[in-house]
Write a structure and sequence with these properties.
The protein is mainly alpha-helical. The chain is 80% helix and 0% strand. It contains 19 helices and no strands. It is globular and about 70 Å long.
């Protein structure tokens, strides 16, 4: 049993014997050790702005793709690279980006990430060719991999105690869970009212606000014992993640049986094994194995991966359904997702600030997985003439409650108890699992849904427009059933891995570590 888990259990026993939840207030001396304590709520707003900017780009550009394709004149086959270029750069460099923030200080790293992301967005918005847009998207991914871990590690080291930590991580989890839905709404509005280019230019507004706040509020605190860059670990981690994300992306466009898909996935698995061996042997590893082998953090990372996969699935296929089957505009599609966003925000905030301090993450995450599975199963009842209020909105509300109960507690427990020197790379693991889960879901669910639709068409010859429309819905049903099964499996795994009846210890702050 890990020291982290032992601390949780000791406090649970103490609380049970006395009937009182241990105090989480900090002493004045402890507060003085944290230069960000006095402005912690304003810092939460800055960190939230940075996280929202990164999360928005997952979906906001998707809405703009048809208009961008028409303006720049690239083919359908090339269109996928607008998404893939970002995913490859972002996913493959996250662990290295997390360690960079530990090495050079979180304020400087956050500022570099914000300014670089904004500059790349400006280039993308002004793109005059397909190559220019792809290069800008890849650059966004690079700076996003620097920005995201720095933002979360700042939150981890600023809020270390008690209910305030729960409230902060509830807000952060709400942003992480609802940002994709907000991206759909904002992307639809900007594309309809202004231009697809503003789906990229809007990042300059977010970045300007976040940079102003960071310069005014943050201190560039460096650890007394600064870690060194583990070059073999960095190279093997980046290569493994690149191969895995590329393999998933190639599977979406060329199928799982394509030679390149198989080769990249095998190479990614092999290099990942090499990375683990390197981390077990080097003196200052890129990702210390203690970060992921802790039972609580390991279970939380797994829950984040499954939650990310399910969220990507519902956004992707429900967007297709609303636009192609019901004929919604991009803006109306974004508005349709608002109940999901509201439910995520409510569930994430209440679960992490009020419930988790008493129960720990396990019951919340397991219940969230079951609610998400229920929402997915309800979506399999959609038809070509389903009404939004009676058939779409109820599973959105249920799914939103489930996602909020999964993501916010998992992010909080995945980063709790980390040593200060590991805060960056531990935070990077959160985003890495979300990214890998999303990439796997998009590739797996897309190919299985396409196969299901093709089989439906084959068995209902001759094909007519009505049969083709029903085939597409049949494919969506397949994706939703698979997503439901993923969440059921996630409930079982979370129940087995996460500790029971305990809450995070209050002495595992970065300063104490």
């Amino acid at each position: 049993m890990s020291d982290h888990e032992t601390g949780w259990r000791e406090r649970a026993v103490s609380a049970a014997s006395t009937g009182v939840i241990p105090s989480t207030s900090r002493s004045p001396a402890a507060q003085a050790e944290n230069p960000h304590h006095a402005h912690r709520w304003l810092i939460l707003a800055v960190v939230g702005m940075a996280q929202l900017m990164v999360t928005l780009d997952v979906t906001i550009v998707n809405i703009a793709l048809p208009s961008a394709q028409q303006a720049l004149g690239f083919s359908d086959d090339s269109r996928q690279w607008i998404i893939t270029a970002y995913s490859l750069a972002f996913g493959s460099l996250l662990l290295l980006g997390g360690r960079v923030s530990d090495l050079f200080g979180r304020k400087g790293t956050l500022l570099i990430g914000l300014v670089g992301f904004a500059a790349a967005s400006a280039v993308g918005g002004a793109a005059t060719s397909f190559a220019m847009l792809v290069a800008a998207r890849a650059s966004q991914g690079v700076f996003g991999a620097i920005l995201a871990p720095a933002a979360l590690s700042l939150l981890t080291t600023t809020f270390t105690e008690g209910r305030e930590r729960g409230t902060a991580f509830g807000a952060f989890g709400a942003i992480a869970g609802s940002g994709a839905g907000v991206g759909l709404l904002l992307g639809g509005a900007l594309t309809d009212w202004l231009s697809w280019r503003w789906c990229l230019y809007v990042n300059l507004v977010f970045a300007a606000l976040a940079v102003t706040g960071a310069l005014a509020l943050l201190h560039n605190v460096r650890e007394a014992t600064r870690p060194h860059i583990d070059v073999p670990g960095a190279l093997s981690a980046s290569a493994a993640l690149f191969a895995v994300v590329f393999g998933f992306s190639n599977a979406q466009t060329h199928g799982w049986s394509a030679g390149l898909t198989i080769a990249m996935l095998i190479a990614g698995a092999a290099i990942l094994c090499l990375f683990v061996l390197i981390q077990a042997r080097v003196r200052q590893p890129l990702l210390p194995l203690r970060v992921v082998l802790d039972r609580t953090r390991g279970g939380s990372y797994l829950a984040i991966g499954i939650g990310g996969a399910g969220m990507f699935g519902i956004f992707l296929f429900l967007t297709y359904y609303l636009q192609r089957s019901l004929g919604y505009s991009p803006l109306r599609t974004g508005i349709a997702f608002l109940p999901l966003v509201a439910a995520i925000i409510i569930a994430a905030t209440i679960a992490t600030s009020r419930v988790m301090p008493r129960t720990g993450p396990k019951p919340l995450v397991v219940a969230g997985m079951l609610l998400a599975a229920l929402a997915m199963s309800l979506l399999t009842q959609l038809s070509a003439d389903s009404a939004y209020v009676s058939h779409v909105m109820p599973p959105l509300l249920i799914g939103g409650l489930g996602f909020g109960m999964i993501m916010a507690p998992s992010i909080a427990s995945a980063t709790h108890g980390l040593r200060a020197a590991d805060a960056g790379v531990g935070s990077a693991m959160v985003t890495t699992m979300q990214q890998i889960g999303g990439s796997l879901a998009v590739a797996l669910l897309s190919t299985l849904a396409a196969d299901s639709a093709t089989n439906y068409l084959t068995s209902h010859a001759p094909p007519t427009q009505a049969i083709a429309a029903q085939a597409a819905i049949h494919g969506y049903h397949t994706a939703f059933w698979i997503a439901a099964a993923m969440f059921l499996g996630g409930a079982i795994l979370s129940g087995a891995l996460l500790p029971r009846g305990v809450r995070p210890s209050t002495d595992a702050s970065p300063a104490a570590a």
